[in-house]
Design the sequence.
């Protein structure tokens, strides 16, 4: 019904929607305090925001450039906004400046709050795969993109850009234009800062992993954001052996009905000697790097991983 409204009403409508959603946000029941602003020292930080059974990852370079990958569920806007405000420089209107925003694929748990992020941030480039979802959430995102006069960069393997002089981002997936499963449209982004790499895989499943292997991409990464919340449909043995991460992060909700992460995936990671961090246990997880070493910070409990 929103489509029939005159265009000038859209920003107001979006603001009203944001307000309504904002009011409905449940208080966060966390035992730990939110992580402070990332280290001001010369480090790249990657913050895996605890958005429950969903994904939202904030990359910030030492020079203050920022990239947001995914925006949790609809009710996660407040927590994401809090991290943006604390970590990212603002423009003259007080809006967080995001050089790049990526919606890995149009499932609710990845683009849930993206319409609100688009409406409230200064975004340089928005990257989405060429995939549509017949949902209100996706439609709201398109309306917000239109209202913000943003152009969408169709995300696919081969796209590469620099966030700053030392930080390079490369898309390794999607490698095909058509998939049966929406998860396989997931943008897989490799972020490299000096000698350290992060592989952020959205919900890419085995089919996409096999395509990346076939293409002969350099998959090696120090940190792997485990695909699809640790489901057994991702993180195949061959793929994992090629990534060979030192640490892995699983973005997953406590007691989720999907029973993520799967035992198979956890065993695979353990067998490879990878340190595993889970947002359901550690809350928000931040990994910083000076370009050679990794530094871990978690919201709850010890930062050792398991
Ligand atoms: Zn997901």
Sequence:
């Amino acid at each position: 019904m929103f489509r029939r409204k005159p265009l000038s009403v859209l920003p107001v409508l979006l603001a009203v929607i944001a307000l309504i959603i904002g009011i409905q946000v449940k208080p966060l029941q966390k035992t730990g305090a939110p992580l402070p602003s990332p280290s001001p020292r010369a480090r790249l930080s990657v913050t895996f925001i605890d958005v429950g059974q969903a994904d939202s990852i904030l990359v910030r370079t030492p020079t203050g450039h920022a990239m947001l990958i995914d925006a949790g569920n609809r009710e996660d806007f407040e927590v994401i906004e809090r991290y943006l405000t604390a970590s990212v420089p603002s423009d003259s209107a007080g809006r967080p400046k995001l050089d790049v925003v990526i919606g890995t694929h149009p499932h609710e748990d990845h683009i849930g709050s993206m319409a609100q992020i688009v409406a409230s941030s200064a975004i340089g480039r928005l990257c989405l795969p060429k995939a549509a979802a017949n949902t209100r959430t996706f439609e709201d995102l398109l309306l917000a993109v239109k209202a913000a006069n943003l152009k969408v960069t169709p995300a696919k393997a081969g796209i590469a850009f620099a966030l700053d002089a030392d930080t390079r981002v490369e898309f390794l997936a999607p490698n095909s234009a058509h998939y049966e499963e929406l998860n396989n449209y997931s943008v897989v982004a490799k972020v490299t800062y000096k000698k350290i790499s992060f592989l952020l895989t959205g919900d890419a499943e085995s089919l996409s992993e096999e395509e990346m292997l076939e293409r002969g991409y350099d998959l090696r990464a120090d940190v792997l954001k485990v695909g699809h919340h640790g489901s057994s449909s991702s993180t195949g043995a061959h793929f994992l052996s090629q990534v060979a991460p030192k640490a892995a992060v699983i973005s997953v909700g406590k007691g989720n009905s999907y029973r993520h992460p799967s035992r198979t995936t956890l065993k695979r990671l353990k067998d490879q000697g990878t340190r595993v961090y889970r947002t359901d246990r550690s809350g928000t997880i931040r990994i910083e790097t000076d370009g050679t070493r990794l530094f871990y910070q978690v919201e709850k409990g010890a930062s050792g991983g398991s």
Remarks:
- Residues 44-298 form a domain with the Metallo-beta-lactamase; Chain A fold (CATH 3.60.15.10).
- The first strand starts at residue 44 and ends at 48.
- The radius of gyration is 18 Å.
- The chain is about 25% helix and 25% strand.
